[in-house]
Amino acid sequence: MxxxxxxxxxILAADFSNLSVEIKxxxxxxxxxxxxxxxxxxxxxxxxxxxxxxxxxxKHTKLILDVHLMIEKPRKFLEAFVKAGxxxxxxxxxxxxxxxxxxxxxxxxxxxAGISLNPRTPVKDIAPVLNMVDLVLVMTVNPGFGGxxxxxxxxxxxxxxxxxFSGDIEVDGxxxxxxxxxxxxxGANMLVAGTYLFGSDNMKGSVEKLKxxxx
Length: 215
What we know:
With 215 residues, the protein is α/β, with parallel strands linked by helices.
């Protein structure tokens, strides 16, 4: 199944001392979305930011805010992230006791809903909500920190999901042109690239390369 390739940077790789300029740079480069990684220091060994920063980002852009909740109690903070201006909220299957109910709640609040799984989590774990979600986010590194090496064994997981799922398959972790091409060939169509994009001297060119990947 061929789907249009969408590319967006992880905001964590931006210069937070000059965030509005970084957002404008991403917009000018032609990105499709901004990926916002929310970490709580419990589910993953790092702490990033919360709804207040999402609210500030929203003031500076009309780009889709793709909010990835890597937190232990996503339902507790759901309403706050909705009010802050999120467009997509993705939760981890590893953190949700009642995933069907939570996905319903996200959609009832008017947002797109995503489900994510870590490299060691089997695809069968997301089966109960696969027909409900708008996107599946396959982590291609162990979540927590940027700059990690792409885990190529996740490619078979992407292939398996694509056989059963017609929505967006997003990949996050170790994405550059080479690994993005591998992920797209496996069935992914949403590419999250932090350092590869924000660290590029020519972000526009890097975005175009990702979006022009052919299967």
